[in-house]
Design goal:
The complex is a heterodimer of chains A (161) and B (517).
Chain A: H1 8-21, H2 28-39, H3 47-53, H4 58-67, E1 79-84, H5 87-90, H6 94-105, E2 111-112, E3 118-123, E4 135-137, E5 140-142, H7 147-160
Chain B: E1 3-8, H1 11-15, H2 18-31, E2 36-41, E3 53-57, E4 60-64, H3 72-77, E5 89-92, H4 97-100, H5 118-123, H6 128-134, H7 138-148, H8 160-169, E6 176-181, H9 190-197, H10 199-213, E7 217-222, H11 227-242, E8 258-263, H12 273-280, E9 304-308, H13 309-321, H14 323-327, E10 330-331, E11 334-335, E12 337-344, E13 350-355, H15 360-367, E14 377-382, E15 389-391, H16 401-406, E16 415-420, H17 425-439, H18 445-462, H19 467-484, H20 488-492, H21 494-503, H22 505-508
Parallel strand pairs in B: 1-2, 6-7, 6-9, 7-8, 12-16
Antiparallel strand pairs in B: 1-3, 3-4, 4-5, 10-11, 12-13, 14-15, 14-16
The chains are: A alpha+beta (161), B alpha/beta (517).
Chain lengths: 161, 517
């Protein structure tokens, strides 16, 4: 269940960022980034706060959050695993890797493992095309990933949690 | 004196374990009580040799690669810091054929300097272009860029100087320079390499652009998938500010230029310039109708020069060495060099900067070394997800904007993705529609609806259902998307689709005779 009201910690962070970005031209994306960087997502219940600070409608904020693949309005797992689905990675077997990961984690794209460790997301190019297939875990990119390497990476994540 | 060892911190090198190699070397040196200094520089772009470890010697830097952490012990056993023999020794790095055969202009400093070391940048011809530009009036800067023949390296290949002239000639109280760093095409990473490896060259290019068109504010719209580039750019901008290259009075010239990085948020469509501008304004990235051109009415309604990273990063060398120097490289109307990115199923992938005119075959086999899998190369996609697939019979095409357009293909941003014979081209055509459906901004119907219908029709073809009828449908649909879409996303998705169908009809279950261009 998502919270129905913002907890004081999140509210404080959101208000701090609003103060910082409010007067910047084209502030909405930088503000959403700052919030998501700290909270891992942009809580839907914060939309009214954001919209009134930037003189936008709640619908406009909702529209922007949902337009961009990067922003999410629900709390993700502790780690984000992004698997590249673009052509260069496909040329070196990313489709099989994708299936392997989904089976291993027991989830599909845009889902989180039951233990809350990993959220799985597709991504279209990490700019690591010289060493395909590529995945990104949080902010670290891995190249030439095969099923053995991904198994290792996943078990490292599970162990760390 | 301590021995200098160079290891790249480019994110592709990191993705192969460059940090772990650096750590292992530091540890091993400590154990053996050897005095070494590890410097983290940019990457040469020889990604097939990463992690590449270079050691400074009297005759130049010698290389060892590809190195894994567990090779480190043997490197020390072979006394590699004194140039000892090792199976992974490569000799002088600058003499490696793959590198030696290139013409590195935009990428001149790559692999040599430390990314955010401004003194090293200056030692290697940095800010020479800016210094020359400060002596010229705006018209003369624009003329130099026009004379160089530089065309937009983002993919559209529009002459940079002409775009700048429009901005310069439009009167306004505020103008902007926007760098399109939303490098979303699969198979491309040259923008990322510049931003992570030589950020000052982009900053210098943007300052010169500002002087040329009369803009005092610049934005770099950077894709969110590049966290290392973000960090490096911000660090470089702070350094440039602190020594007076950015700010209210650039090098005491009285000129103002401020620069800020803005993060994109994972929408491919925002690489389209008007969608990018909407996004910078804090909105959904919906494509705008043109006209008005962004050069006349762009960011916040003001005249804006929107240029790709490579276009802007190439401006400094043009201003430093003159239009003619740059113009002398290339063929036909494609002047200068193109940073080509080899990707996909190739043995030797990486960054090849060559004058226009090099053929695909040379790139795939002489540089690329053929497929990584050892199986024949069946198709290559040039220019990202909206680029055509080319069969072996077209591999002798020289890289030149016009020659590519004659065979109904594009050069785009210079990414080349190779596929071996295991690829099914009908599936790649389906993927092209699918990608368009995922990334469509939704403003125009041909793209929004056409892409989804395209996936459905391709599913029928792949299932072998009424193939003839459905390939006709694919052609009709492609025709509508080509001619009716608002921008290149819907308008060019037919390139990969139809090229796959025309060149590889068998994969669609159609007789070659039935296909028509």
């Amino acid at each position: 269940m998502e919270d129905l009201v913002l907890n004081p910690h999140d509210l404080k962070i959101i208000n701090q960022h609003i103060l910082q970005y409010q007067s910047m031209p084209g502030a909405l994306l930088p503000l959403l980034h700052a919030i998501q960087d700290d909270l891992g997502f942009v809580p839907e219940i914060a939309y009214p706060l954001i919209s009134s600070a930037l003189s936008l409608s709640v619908a406009e904020v909702h529209g922007v959050v949902t337009f961009y693949h990067h922003f999410r309005s629900h709390k993700p797992g502790r780690h984000i695993l992004q698997v590249c689905r673009a052509e260069s990675c496909q040329a070196l077997g990313s489709e099989a890797l994708e299936t392997h990961i989904k089976n291993k984690l027991g989830i599909d794209f845009h889902e989180t493992t039951f233990d809350g460790t990993i959220t799985l997301e597709p991504i279209y190019c990490l700019g690591n095309c010289a060493c395909s297939p590529a995945v990104m875990i949080d902010e670290a990119v891995y190249g030439r990933v095969d099923s053995k390497k991904i198994d290792q990476l996943i078990s490292d994540l599970k162990r760390a949690s | 004196m301590s021995m200098k060892i160079f290891i790249s911190k480019d994110s592709t090198a990191l993705s192969l374990g460059a940090d772990e190699v650096a750590e292992a070397i530091a540890k091993e040196a400590q154990t053996r009580k050897l005095d070494i200094q590890i410097l983290r520089n940019s990457s040469r772009g020889l990604f097939w040799l990463e992690t590449l470890v270079e050691v400074e010697t009297a005759s130049g830097r010698i290389g060892f690669g590809p190195i894994n952490p567990n090779d480190v012990k043997s490197l020390f056993d072979a006394d590699f810091i004194k140039g000892g023999k090792h199976p992974l020794a490569l000799g002088l790095v600058s003499e490696i054929d793959w590198l030696k055969k290139q013409e590195r202009l935009t990428f001149a400093r790559m692999g040599i300097t430390e990314p955010t070391n401004i003194d090293q940048y200056i030692e290697h011809e940095g800010f020479q272009g800016l210094k020359n530009a400060l002596k010229l009036n705006p018209q003369a800067i624009v003329q130099t860029v026009t004379d160089s023949g530089l065309r937009g390296r983002g993919g559209a290949a529009f002459p940079t100087g002409i775009k700048w002239k429009t901005v310069l000639d439009t009167k306004a109280t505020q103008k902007y320079i926007v760098c399109n760093a939303d490098e979303g095409d699969s198979g491309t990473y040259s923008d990322r390499m510049i931003m992570e490896g030589d950020p000052f060259v982009l900053i210098e290019g943007m300052i010169i652009a500002g002087l040329a068109v009369g803009a005092s504010q610049g934005y770099i719209y950077l894709r969110s998938e590049y966290p290392h580039a973000l960090k490096t750019l911000n660090e470089a901008i702070e350094k440039a500010k602190s020594v007076g290259y950015l700010g209210d009075d650039i090098l005491k010239s009285g000129h103002t230029f401020h620069l800020e990085v803005r993060r994109a948020a994972g929408a491919y469509i925002c690489g389209e310039e008007t969608s990018l501008l909407e996004s910078l304004e804090g909105k959904r990235g919906l494509v705008r109708f043109k006209p008005p051109l962004p050069a006349i009415e762009g960011l916040f309604g003001k005249p804006t020069a929107v240029n790709n990273v490579i276009s802007l990063a190439t401006v400094p060398i043009i201003l430093a060495r003159g239009a003619k120097y740059y113009q002398d490289f290339g063929m036909g109307k494609s002047r200068g060099t193109l940073p080509i990115q080899l990707a996909g199923n190739l043995k030797r992938t990486g960054l090849v900067e060559k004058a226009f005119g090099v053929t695909l075959r040379e790139l795939l086999y002489d540089f690329g070394g053929g497929s990584l899998s050892g199986k024949p190369i069946k198709a290559v996609q040039v220019g990202g997800p909206l680029g055509a697939y080319l069969p072996e019979s077209q591999f002798d095409t020289p890289l030149d904007y016009e020659k590519f357009s004659e065979i109904w293909a594009i050069l785009g941003h210079g990414g080349i993705v190779a596929f071996d014979e295991t690829v099914n081209m009908a599936k790649m055509a389906r993927y092209a529609f699918d990608f368009c459906a995922i990334e469509s901004c939704g403003k125009c119907t041909p793209c929004r609806v056409g892409s989804t219908r395209g996936v459905e029709v391709m599913d029928h073809i792949i299932a072998g259902k009424d193939v003839e009828k459905h390939t006709t449908l694919v052609r009709d649909l492609s025709d509508t998307m080509l001619n009716g879409s608002l921008c290149a996303l819907g308008g060019m998705t037919p390139y990969p689709v139809l090229s796959a169908l025309n060149h590889f009809p068998k994969d669609f279950g159609v007789d070659a005779k039935e296909t028509k261009a």
